[in-house]
Design brief:
Structural class: alpha+beta
Number of strands: 10
Distance between the termini: 66 Å
Number of helices: 6
Largest sheet: 6 strands, mixed
Helix content: 10-25%
Strand order of the largest sheet: 3-4-5-6-7-8
Mean pLDDT: 92
C-alpha cells in the first residue's frame, strides 16, 4: 500500500487490521471491505464473483471466480506440494494428484462440514479451471468434479481431533538443537 495507489479488497473481518501494515493514512479510501456473504466486484468491463470460503483455512476467507474465463481462484483449496516445474502443468487426472494435496488439506481445512457447504455452492458454477495459490491448477470437467467429490468427503481439521490432542505435554523442546526430547521419568531403585 506504500508504493501503489491500488485498492485493497479484504474481508470485513480483517479490514480493521490493514492500517497496521503500512504507514498512517496509506489505507484512507483504499480498503474495500467484503461482507461475509461475498459479492460481485467490478473489474474493467466485467466482474469477479467473491465467494465465501470462511474457515478454509481461515475466517474471513474468499475465493474469486471469473465468469468470463470460468477460472475459480481457490486460494489454499486445491494446494499441492509440487516443484515449480510440476506446478506449471495442469492436473487432468486427480487420483494421481491427491497424495500431493491430502496432508495439507487434512491439516489446514477446518472441517468436513465447511467443505461440504462450499462444494454445494461451487457446483452451481461453470468452472473450466481451479487455480490454487500454490501448486498445479486443476483443469477439465472430470478432474474438477473429482476434486469437488474428494473434498466433499474429506475428513479434516477438527474432524480428526479428539482428547488425545489436548493433553498437558510431557516432551521438552531443546532450543539449541530444536529437537524434542521425551520427558525423563524417575526410575525406582
Amino acid at each position: 500500500m506504500s508504493t501503489t495507489k491500488a485498492s485493497l479488497v479484504i474481508s470485513r473481518v480483517w479490514e480493521r487490521f490493514a492500517p497496521h501494515f503500512t504507514k498512517v493514512g496509506k489505507t484512507e479510501n483504499r480498503v474495500i471491505g467484503v461482507p461475509d456473504s461475498g459479492g460481485h466486484l467490478p473489474l474493467g468491463r466485467h466482474e469477479l464473483v467473491l465467494l465465501p470460503a470462511h474457515f478454509m483455512h481461515s475466517e474471513g476467507n474468499f475465493r474469486f471466480y471469473d465468469p468470463v474465463s470460468r477460472i475459480l481462484f481457490t486460494g489454499d483449496l486445491g494446494v499441492s506440494m509440487t516443484s515449480g516445474a510440476e506446478a506449471r502443468i495442469p492436473v487432468t487426472d486427480l487420483a494421481a494428484h491427491i497424495p500431493r494435496m491430502e496432508g495439507f488439506h487434512r491439516r489446514y481445512m477446518v472441517s468436513n462440514k465447511i467443505l461440504r457447504l462450499w462444494v454445494h455452492m461451487a457446483r452451481q458454477l461453470d468452472i473450466a479451471m481451479l487455480v490454487p495459490q500454490h501448486g498445479a491448477p486443476i483443469m477439465g470437467k472430470k478432474a474438477i468434479s473429482d476434486f469437488l467429490d474428494w473434498i466433499e468427503n474429506l475428513m479434516c481439521g477438527i474432524d480428526l481431533f479428539d482428547d488425545r490432542a489436548y493433553q498437558i505435554p510431557t516432551a521438552h523442546i531443546d532450543p539449541v538443537s530444536r529437537q524434542m526430547r521425551p520427558a525423563l521419568h524417575a526410575v525406582n531403585a
